[in-house]
Specification:
Length: about 240
């Protein structure tokens, strides 16, 4: 396939950069898309404070028919490089069709962009800072993703290996299941805490606050359902 890489230079092109991910995963039941306005703010030097110590450009890959077939962000976090004594360019927000020429063109573009700025190492997927989603999914493709993590198709890591990139670290994503019924031991502990709080309040204002809290705790202890939170942790 003939691939052309173009740098994003206008707001309309930035919108296409963001929306490519939406279109690319629209039929995938496990991908959770980023909020559009959040992405606009993230990529804006006026809205994202990370641009005080970061530099970035965004690139789109087009096929011979002018159709977008991939995207990538090239980022230099100078503060991180100074801290870790590195000259590293980051690639982030990378998406591409299952064609090695496309992924190669995107990665080579980031490498060249970084080399022009004195960088000698590439790593990713990373954002501007650790506040952005990081990493590439290597298993668990049949699990619902979260807005705090990255979902990608299974062929992504295969392409990275073919392009000579090696794994830097393993991050584990976990689910926490909340039981429908509160265990008896937990319910007993909640009731005991509620009784103790109700009996240790002295002043009138404090007594009222404690009474309200004790009432809420008793209600929780007697309830048979909990609303499961959306939790994911990585290490």
């Amino acid at each position: 396939m003939s691939v052309e890489i173009r740098k994003v230079t206008s707001k309309s092109e930035l919108k296409r950069f963001i929306r490519f991910n939406y279109e690319f995963y629209k039929d995938n039941p496990y991908s959770v898309p980023d909020l559009y306005d959040d992405m606009l703010n993230t990529f804006s030097p006026e809205k994202n404070a990370a641009f005080e110590f970061c530099e970035a450009d965004y690139f789109l890959a087009y096929d011979e028919n002018g159709k977008i077939v991939g995207r990538v962000a090239a980022i230099i976090n100078r503060r991180a490089n100074e801290t870790w004594n590195k000259k590293c360019v980051r690639f982030g927000w990378i998406d591409f069709i299952d064609d090695l020429e496309v992924s190669r063109a995107l990665i080579d573009t980031v490498k060249a962009w970084g080399k022009e700025r004195g960088m000698n190492e590439i790593e990713g997927p990373l954002g501007f800072t650790d506040m952005d989603a990081e990493g590439m999914l290597i298993e668990g493709f049949d699990q619902l993703s979260t807005m705090a993590t990255i979902y990608n198709y299974p062929y992504y890591p295969e392409h990275m290996e073919k392009l000579g990139l090696v794994k830097s670290a393993d991050w584990v994503e976990m689910k926490i299941y909340v039981p429908e019924e509160i265990p008896e031991s937990t319910a007993a502990s909640l009731k005991s805490s509620a009784r103790n709080m109700g009996s240790t309040c002295a002043s009138s204002p404090a007594r009222k606050k404690c009474a309200n809290l004790a009432s809420a705790m008793k209600s929780s202890a007697s309830s048979t359902m909990l609303t499961p939170p959306c939790l994911a942790s990585r290490k």
